[in-house]
Amino acid sequence: MDISVKLGLTKGDSNVKALATVTIDNQFAIHGLKVVEGKKGDFIAYPSQKKADGSYADVAHPVTAEARQAVNDAVIAAYDKAREKAAEVVKEDVEPER
Q: Whole-model pTM?
């Protein structure tokens, strides 16, 4: 399974740290995934819809544990890379030129 991720970091103090779009095998895209900072660590929240009873149900999600793990790994890897790149930019802005 080929998974590509487009990810943007969010700003502010929200527990939502990034928004992502995942494309699977260049054939199926899922928009609106969120990287959320939870008490037990970061996790991926899939796009959901509020139901009549007030609860939420995922609109799109992996069916198997293996597919969920593959998507989660790809999104977290993209998130980690984006954070590293953002940290480098901040570091360059802070360090004086010599």
A: 0.83
